[in-house]
Amino acid sequence: MKDKLFTVNNLTKKFKNGVVALDDVSVEINQGVTVIIGPSGSGKSTILRMLNAMETPSSGEVFYKDTTNIFEKGFKLNLYRQKVGMVFQNFHLFPHLTVLKNLNLAQMNVLKRSEAEATEISINYLTKVGLIDKKDVYPNQLSGGQKQRIAIARSLCMNPDVILFDEPTSALDPEMILEVLNVMQDLANQGMNMIIVTHEMNFARRVADDLIVMDKGKIIERNTPEEIFNNAKNPRTKEFLERVI
Ligand code: ADP
Ligand code: MG
């Protein structure tokens, strides 16, 4: 048995406009790679944002390892978000900072590393994602695929326990998708814990230890990718897979 990362208990999110994005979701997420799939609007981003406490629930709890409920008053979110990193569809790089400064910023502000320490770590991860030659350029001089590899490197600089990815390749031109998926595959091979929302089904199949299928604010199926792709139990899972594969 792998160790538990997250325990989600009865999580519900009803937005002010009345939309129920999460409907009483309970799930345990283990170490390793978990991939979340499902139709648009099914609540994938909402649950991911909830795990990082970027969204607060209408009701329910999230426990990380042996912490208290992350939504409890007084819970140290700054420290927590260092352990639970996030990579977004649209990169979220600072346009007015060079690549190196983008990577150094949170290391210096949150982890209190000196500029020299931060730079050494940034250079290490820039080398790992194959972009050391870009360290002094600004984000607008990079391709989408390069921006996303920089965003991943920036997350790695914080020594996270787990990285959450919300459709990391959805904003990319097709020829750039693979370079980002390859970086993520390398991380998986090195044992990084990851929770990934994606529509890249071949990648999901290859990389996931656990696959979660969402529909209409609920988890409708959860199993190994083998089982879900070959032997889905829920008719709505089958219908979804038929549409996307
Ligand atoms: P997915 O990532 O699976 O496409 P989301 O989690 O983004 O789905 O959204 C789930 C549902 O919640 C959708 O109906 C969406 O329109 C709605 N929703 C998401 N964010 C908000 C918000 N800030 N305010 C109102 N409704 C929202
Ligand atoms: Mg989404």
TrEMBL record:
GO cellular component assignments: plasma membrane
First and last residue of the signal peptide: none
Sorted UniProt keywords: Amino-acid transport, ATP-binding, Cell membrane, Membrane, Nucleotide-binding, Transport
Domain ABC transporter: 6-241
Superkingdom of this protein's organism: Bacteria
SUPFAM superfamilies: P-loop containing nucleoside triphosphate hydrolases
Transmembrane segments: none
Entries under Pfam families matching the protein: ABC_tran
Annotated PANTHER family: AMINO ACID IMPORT ATP-BINDING PROTEIN, GLUTAMATE_ASPARTATE IMPORT ATP-BINDING PROTEIN GLTL
Protein name: Phosphate ABC transporter ATP-binding protein
Native species: Acholeplasma hippikon
Lineage of the species this protein comes from: Bacteria, Bacillati, Mycoplasmatota, Mollicutes, Acholeplasmatales
